[in-house]
Write the structure tokens for this entry.
Amino acid sequence: MLDVTPMHPLFVGEASGIDLTAPLADTDRDAIVRAMDAYGVLVFHDQFIDDAQQMAFAAAFGPLETSREADRPGHKMRLDVHMADVSNLGIDGKPLPPDHFRRMSGLANQLWHTDSSFKRIPATYSMLSARAVPDSGGETEFADCRAAYDALPEVMKARIAGFVAEHSIYTSRAALGFTDFTDAERAALPAVLHPLVKTHPGSGRTTLYIASHAGAIVGMPVAEARLLLADLMEHATQREFVYRHRWRAGDLVMWDNRATLHRGRSFDLDAVRDVRRTTVADSAQGAVPLAEAARSV
Ligand SMILES: [Fe+2]
């Protein structure tokens, strides 16, 4: 039976009582959903699962995302197409060379973001399993976007109500100087629109939906939009809203992308960090592609 112990004053629970290597009972699944609605992030320790078990666990919560690496011509993937390889390793199991596109996109994970906000169908849950971690660094930080929204001044809540932000993966990559993408890659992931303020469906609480992927707000000059987005990000990631997870091998951390932000922290990229993610697609809430929205104006 699921037992949850708070790990932070606002969110994040340590979950125990469920063996994630075994098929998930419906009652346990429902208990995890309720706990996720309350905590936003659950930390399971000592879950030495393999990829098949991780995919089966994730699939209990909805359709799995397919890795974007699969679209890269000529690229050989280390993991199944339903696993996001968040490691710094190549198919030979060794750390990637400095100029490898996966190493560069891994660096962009060190910017605050929510997974897949740049996709037409964004993500509900992500589950990250630590198979091997470096001795130091490589932590993941999470920020509580529901608490951050609650703490906004009323004048700011009134200002941003109804705002719609434009998200693109190429915005977060460009922030780090990575612009080396083909036209086909850019065409495959056009910018999408999301409300800046959303209601979290499980809890009914209001939340900020922001990410380093967001680079514009509909109807606002870009410079003003970027300053507002930067202000909101700075607000939401103040220390009081942040939990830092120091990984141990065997940890599986599950988070709700609709209620939290996260970022990886730096580590020695020549050390092995083998972390693998499964991601559940939010089949209930698709974003509006920018091009489609523009046509309807
Ligand atoms: Fe992420």
